[in-house]
Amino acid sequence: MVNHEIKIAFEEYSSFEELNAADQALCREAVKALGGSHSPYSNFSVGAALRLQSGKIIYGSNQENAAYPSGLCAERVALFNWGANYAHDPIEALAVTAYTAKFVINKPITPCGSCLQVLAEYERKQKQPIRTLLYCQDGSTWVTNGVESFLPFLFFEDRLVSVPV
Ligand SMILES: [Zn+2]
Fold this sequence. Notes:
One of its GO terms (biological process) is pyrimidine-containing compound metabolic process. This protein is α+β, with helices and mostly antiparallel strands. 24% of the residues lie in helices and 21% in strands. The longest helix has 14 residues, at 113-126. It is globular and about 55 Å long. The site of zinc ion (ZN) has 7 residues, from helix 2 and helix 3.
């Protein structure tokens, strides 16, 4: 038996002003993305913004539906838009933020496992890490350079070895 230990690393910025100018700008774009949220059931809006290498910003927001499983998270709305339309232009950074009138959000909202898995696969596809900013408008911001700190056990096909037929 072997014990393994995995360490994760992220930066925490307690004030918005501590972030560099590019990160601040992308967090503001994520706030802008909140406006596209369709969340009449949860009243919990999530906004995501991708900054591409060209400087283009791709927006995503959570989209709910009366048939509950038909909705999608903000992060994947943005990421699938990128994958379908802009994959030639690598993603440099992703910012995510949330808003609800029901609660005070005092810690960053973290992407769900499915969004992290999609983010991880696109990181591999574009062969460069995606700086990820989890921006809490009334609290701190968490930053990683790449998704593996948030999802150390990613699933990748390269773990599967073909069986000769
Ligand atoms: Zn998600």
